[in-house]
Amino acid sequence: MRIFDPHIHMTSRTTDDYAAMYEAGVRALVEPAFWLGQPRTSVGSFIDYFDALLGWERFRAAQYGIRHHATIALNPKEANDPRCVPVLEEIPRYLGKEGVVAVGEIGFDSMTPAEDRAFSRQLELAAEFSLPALVHTPHREKLRGTQRTLDIVRESRVDPSMVVVDHLNETNVAMVKDAGAWMGFSIYPDTKMDEERLVAILHEYGTEKVLVNSAADWGKSDPLKTVSTAKAMLTGGFSADDVDRVLWQNPVDFYGQSGALILDPIPGFDGEELGGAGATFEGNSLLRGVRA
């Protein structure tokens, strides 16, 4: 089994997590820029964080055979803090760096005018740099937040096929699918979405344009939720090809639109275990639009 976790915050995880993920089949991931758990007090703290995502964290993942990519953004929660908003002027110089595959996480937390402005501006940057956008839906007022998200996308220059709307549940998945955007699901131990509910959603809505992630961070979360989702899909009647579509090919297809994915095996690690239909790396369709 090969797994690409499209949304996981490895800065908050240990090297034991990297080892367990590799053992379970995780070979690539995307780490979105997000809130660190307490307020940042200056733009400089963002700069240090972005540099760490693109330098130290990529190096740390590589020690365990996993390709690390990142998304860069001012997150919705901190878009409300005047001390943080000036980082929008610094973000463009990061969007062309190696390993950056999207603008994100952007979207809404408390549905404020400041969040609206930051969201729209960062969609402009996504269009300018021809990057996908990773959108965070709010924990509160999720339906209203999702609808406003889709309205802003429609008002932007970004095609919905370049947008994943994340942290979905049964209440808002249909509107995202109808809008033509990608549907993101974060599988958590107690909140957001679990494996069995996700399997039911897949039976109703299909496996196309679906991204399943662990979104693991400092809170109660599990970096192997992608693995348990794969097992639940098989138990729920999906085929091994369906699992591969959701947990590998779909993330590759979405983030591959950036032209910045790097999926060749880490030197010193055997890539043969990623075999199967269409799984070789050189000259393969996996790398269509992907930089090796």
Summarize the helix and strand pattern as letters: EHEHHEHEHEHEHEHEHH
Strand order of the largest sheet: 1-2-3-4-5-6-7-8
Reported for the largest beta sheet, the result is: 8 strands, parallel
Radius of gyration: 18 Å
DSSP helix fraction: 25-40%
Overall mean pLDDT: 91
Number of strands: 8
**Any low-confidence stretches, pLDDT <50, length ≥5?**
272-292
Between the first and last Cα atoms, what is the distance in angstroms?
21 Å
* Percentage of residues in strands: 5-15%
The chain-level structural class is alpha/beta
Shape: globular
How many distinct helices?
A: 10
Family: Belongs to the metallo-dependent hydrolases superfamily.
Organism: Arthrobacter caoxuetaonis
InterPro entries: Metal_Hydrolase, TatD-like, UCP005295
Protein name: TatD family hydrolase
Task: Write structural notes for this entry.
This protein is an alpha/beta fold and 292 residues long. The C terminus is likely disordered. It is globular, with a radius of gyration of 18 Å. β3, α4 and β4 form a beta-alpha-beta unit. The chain starts with a strand and ends in a 37-residue tail after the last helix. The protein has ten helices and eight strands. An eight-stranded parallel β-sheet has the order 1-2-3-4-5-6-7-8, sandwiched between helices. The protein is 37% helix and 14% strand.
